[in-house]
Amino acid sequence: MPPLRIVIGADTYPPDVNGAARFAERLATGLAGRGHDVHVVAPSPDGPAGRDRRDGLTVHRIRSYRYPLHENFRICLPWQAGPATATVLDDLDPDVVHVQAHFVVGRGLAVAASGAGRPLVATNHFMPENLFAHARVPGSLRQAAARWAWRDLARVFGRAAVVSAPTPRAVQLLAESAGIAGALPVSCGIDADRYAGGVEADVPTVLFVGRLDQEKRVDELLRAFALLPAGLPARLEIVGDGARRGAWTALAEELGPAERVRFAGFVSEEELLAAYRRCAVFCMPGVAELQSLATLEAMSASKPVVAADAMALPHLVRPGRNGWLYQPGDVEALSARLATLLADAPLRRRMGAVSRQIAGSHALGKTLDRFEDLYRRVLGHTTDRIAAA
């Protein structure tokens, strides 16, 4: 494939810490590593607009403002971001535009691209539940707000020639909630080799990685951990930050003993790798996961997984083979599954090996291949791989 000039629109991008930001970065750096001229358009992490060159690609930052209801969340103003993204697009004259969201930056690029007849691909990482905590939407209004949000997404993504989502369940959700038919499942992908190696900590540790917001249900994990048999050595490590950190820290102290639970907050990439490698079991109690990169990362580190039987997590967990699923809210069942794994090192090793095999089917190289194929499609090129997909 000849090198392309690709613009990736991301409403969240590192230094932001979340799955969508990490995927956008991996996609951008992976495509740049294949020789493409890659440009990312994303909100500024500190306010002023700017541009910087990193990892073989160019990041164009759109002026942003601190969101008053969340200290780690920044927003762009539509009346500023729309013209700014259109200007970037005109200056770059890309072969293809690939937006990662329908919010302000993604919307601006989608409108500008479709208006100018530029090939447009859209990938969805959005569920309304993931934003309700940030937007402080009252419970009584959430159902109506979710319907409006899906309709809004359909208006923006309806401009794209191709729409994708990370899993078949995420594609199904787009069809059911946004009326978008024909979307394609394309895994976020993982560089499994990066997570290999390491030795378990002396005391078996349960690990959670993610935002500390309500839909992640870390409170259920804390309660399940507190129910473990008294004589079973175990620790719980929680990596990430968010609106519920204070409340969940207080809950851990209430349930006790608090010294067995560590809230690590945001950590560096190397610290995160170390956390995956030293844990014994990974737990994902979230109920709004369109794929869960954190779970894939833990599986790449050869860890068994106990996860909620919700959204796309069943695509990753094979019950009895690389871990177990449990019904959200069933704290006793979650505790029992954790106890079984914490008490049985050989079982952890067997299930961890299967986890790594499953993660191998999500190789980042396959994801990059697939998106290169989709870019060919929207550019009017055809390949055998597209026809067979």
TrEMBL record:
Chain ranges of the Glycosyltransferase subfamily 4-like N-terminal domain: 17-194
Pfam families: Glyco_transf_4, Glycos_transf_1
Entry keyword tRNA-binding: no
Classification via InterPro entries: Glyco_trans_1, Glyco_trans_4-like_N, Glycosyltransferase_grp1
Keyword Glycosyltransferase attributed: yes
A Gene Ontology biological process term: carbohydrate derivative biosynthetic process
Keyword annotations from UniProtKB, A to Z: Glycosyltransferase, Transferase
Domain Glycosyl transferase family: 198-356
GO molecular function annotation: hexosyltransferase activity
PANTHER family reported in the protein's UniProt record: SULFOQUINOVOSYL TRANSFERASE SQD2
Protein name, as recorded: Glycosyl transferase family 1
Organism ancestry: Bacteria, Bacillati, Actinomycetota, Actinomycetes, Pseudonocardiales
